[in-house]
């Protein structure tokens, strides 16, 4: 088995950071009072089958919708499975539309990841994709890197967060390939 580290690297003698820095995972408590926090999820949710969808043809500022996701599935020759992690490989500043998030929720995925700082354009834009996904306990993994190194459509994904009593946690994400 080959392991590919998908986590951003940094050096520090002392660690202090905004929870949205680097590779991190958002839980429902991020947007919903009383929502599940990171430490309330079973460890199995962070070790799962993953699928990589290539959406790098989308340009700066464009949205990913359901038709884009279906086309990426077809291009990869696969269909999404319940509870698997869907990793979106995008170009800079491309984000998931509400419609795209609803499509992934309908397909029953357990986690949505992206190689961007956010699946949304930011809090000022309503956080619609976050709201759709987190309202259904679908975790959001952001700030991934090195997705070009994954040479398979399906793989195992380990995305174990720091065990925090909180809504957001840093993650060391690793793709495991045969």
- Identify the CATH architecture: 3-Layer(bba) Sandwich
Could you say what the CATH topology is called?
Glucose Oxidase, domain 1
Strand percentage lies at: 25-35%
Mean pLDDT: 90
Number of domains: 1
Care to describe what's here?
By secondary structure, the chain is of the alpha/beta class. It has one domain (2-8, 19-171): 3-Layer(bba) Sandwich (Glucose Oxidase, domain 1). It contains three helices and ten strands. It has helices spanning 66-76, 98-106, 128-134, and strands spanning 2-5, 24-26, 47-54, 63-64, 85-89, 95-96, 111-114, 139-142, 154-161, 168-177. Strand 7, helix 3 (128-134) and strand 8 (139-142) form a beta-alpha-beta unit. The mean pLDDT is 90.
Give short descriptive properties of this protein:
single chain, 178 residues, alpha/beta, Glucose Oxidase, domain 1, seven-stranded mixed β-barrel, 3 helices, 15% helix
Q: Layout of SSEs?
A:
Elements: E1 2-5, E2 24-26, E3 47-54, E4 63-64, H1 66-76, E5 85-89, E6 95-96, H2 98-106, E7 111-114, H3 128-134, E8 139-142, E9 154-161, E10 168-177
Parallel strand pairs: 3-5, 4-6, 5-7, 7-8
Antiparallel strand pairs: 1-10, 2-8, 2-10, 3-9, 9-10
Helix pairs in contact: 1-2, 2-3
